[in-house]
Amino acid sequence: MGYNILGVTPGHNGSIALVSNGKLIFYLEEERLSRVKKDANPLKTLFFLLQKYKIDEIVLCGAGCQSVKLVRTRKDLYYSIVKKFNTKAKFYNYEDHHHLTHVASSFYTSGFQKSLGVVIDAQGSNFNYKGETIFENSSLFYCEHPNNINPIHKIYLSNSISYSTKQEKITPFFSIAKIYEGVSNYLKYPEEEGKTMGLSSYGKSNSLILDFLKDGIINPKYYTHEKTYGSIYPKMKFPKNIPPKDIAWEIQNKSQQIVGDYIEKGIKETGLKQVCCSGGYFLNCVANYYLVKRFPDIDFYFDPISHDGGTSIGAALYRWYKHSQDKSIRPRKNLYNGFKYSNKDLKKIIKKYL
Hints:
Elements (H helix, E strand, L loop, with lengths): L3 E6 L5 E6 L2 E7 L1 H4 L8 H10 L4 E4 L16 H9 L4 E4 L4 H10 L6 E7 L5 E4 L2 E13 L3 E10 L5 E2 L3 E4 L4 H11 L6 H8 L12 E2 L2 E2 L4 E6 L2 E6 L7 H27 L3 E5 L6 H10 L4 E4 L8 H14 L18 H9 L3
Parallel strand pairs: 1-4, 4-5, 6-16, 9-11, 16-17
Antiparallel strand pairs: 1-2, 2-3, 6-8, 7-8, 8-9, 10-11, 12-13, 14-15
């Protein structure tokens, strides 16, 4: 039957991945079953898999929120459900390793023996540092099979702390992905950053906002700090006479340059010619094309499930390689990891509409 590991991501883009003997055989986002956009609770998917497979391990990875605790026992909901089907199932919690699960998702499906791993997203796991909560912003990793994935540089968001070493940086300035999100909200595209990307192609450089971003830092005159659900984000403000398409052009062009500079830093430090990219920012295909042109000698792999749903894949694969020390390299060959239908099933469905 194989050794089966479930990666579970509760929170926005709730998803579950099943890895059997190191092979990704199933992945589904809950919204495909519930029809609720970005459904945070992948329970339908979980019950389907538990009825079909014997699960040996469950690995929980958060996507911006903690998983649900049962009121009476305070035990994790997903852990408790799996235990009903298999009392011997082991449970691992990777909720404090958000960027690790992102980079594992990209690296283990890339087909590379070793690579630079890059994670750029709005916000990752949070940690306590000197009494203040700090959030993952951006990360660089050295990745090598079978299970050598180590951070070489990290940037964290803080309310007020400024601290920097060769390996990490804590800053009160937002990640470029968070700024992109803030600009999209300003343009009336909440959670629709792809529309900002599309709009950018119609804009141009505008002298009224040339000082918007410098050295990856947002000019304070363009935003105020806002808080929601314990998180921090920039509420943008621009002069009224600036066309929205020019604002979109500015964030698109400045952000991809900043991301390119960060990747260049990692390439210079490691000397690696293969780069795996994950995190929500790399859903930006315009930026990805810019990076490919900027670094013609680099072999890029952009995780096709770069958003937080893909962390369930990364968590399950990382756990497998840690558990087994398997040296097999399994590049992703397709994105069809959901339900399988026979020709007979398809014909039956088609007949309903004839």
